[in-house]
Amino acid sequence: FFTRPMKIWEKESHKIVFDVGIRRSSQNSQVQLWLWDHDISASLVIESALDAHSDIRQVLRYMEWSLHGIPWIVASSISLTIMMRLNSNSELTHKFAILLFGLCIDLVCVGIIKVFVRRPRPVYDRQDQVYEAAIADRFSFPSGHSSRSAMLAVLALSLCSPPDWIVTVLKIFPFLLGLSRVVMGRHYISDVLAGLTLGWLEGHIVQLLPQSAIPFLKRSCTTLFGTSRP
User: What sections of the protein cross the membrane (predicted)?
Assistant: First the structure.
């Protein structure tokens, strides 16, 4: 197929090997795509982004933390519970229910796919994620951060009325977040593309949650959400 020199970086006495040796020709298009995916992903990694003490990595980790699933689920769960107990505006409550439903669906879908595909993370990943799931987060495909950012962007654009500059940010941010996952060595490009596609689909599907789900939840969990207003 092609020959590529071994690419080795040394940082803090740790050798990070991106690829090895000589690639033999193959007629299998899937194998070729797999090789391209690995090569292009490795070429996008910034060396300083792998340094645990570099400013670039700290910025990328802040981006990583901002889209971590657990804080989003906890915050949206608390918000929805408070709104339902206070019998807040039904339309706004419905939007928060869609948000929480979407976050849970995303977590389940990404986890199932990761465990089923079981694609290892890049060998140069520093493996310094916090609050990662014991099993699913060991794997790379698809990118959960990418799917979550795409889903949240779709929901924000569909359920809110942001100003034009916010609309632009919401459309660009998922792609920047996805690129950051490759640059810091967490994922391959195909992981990110799959995650963005999955998140886009989730964002449109979860909006089908009917508004009648709110009173149903209140009737089913009166201890948690209180009784419905007469």
Answer: 65-84, 96-117
Contacts with 163 (C-beta within 8 Å, 6 or more apart), sequence order: none
Rounded Cα–Cα distance for residues 63 and 167 (Å): 19
Provide the residue ranges of all domains of the chain, joining segments of one domain with +: 8-52, 62-225
Of residues 68, 94, 187, 204, which has the active-site annotation? Answer: 187
Tell me the sheet residues that pair with 61: none
DSSP state of 21: S
DSSP label at residue 123: T
User: By the 8 A CB rule, do 116 and 140 touch?
Assistant: no
Place of tokens 């991106």: 18
The reply to whether 145 belongs to the active site is yes
Q: Is 94 a catalytic residue?
A: no
What's the pLDDT tens digit per position in 110-137?
999 999 998 888 887 777 666 566 566 7
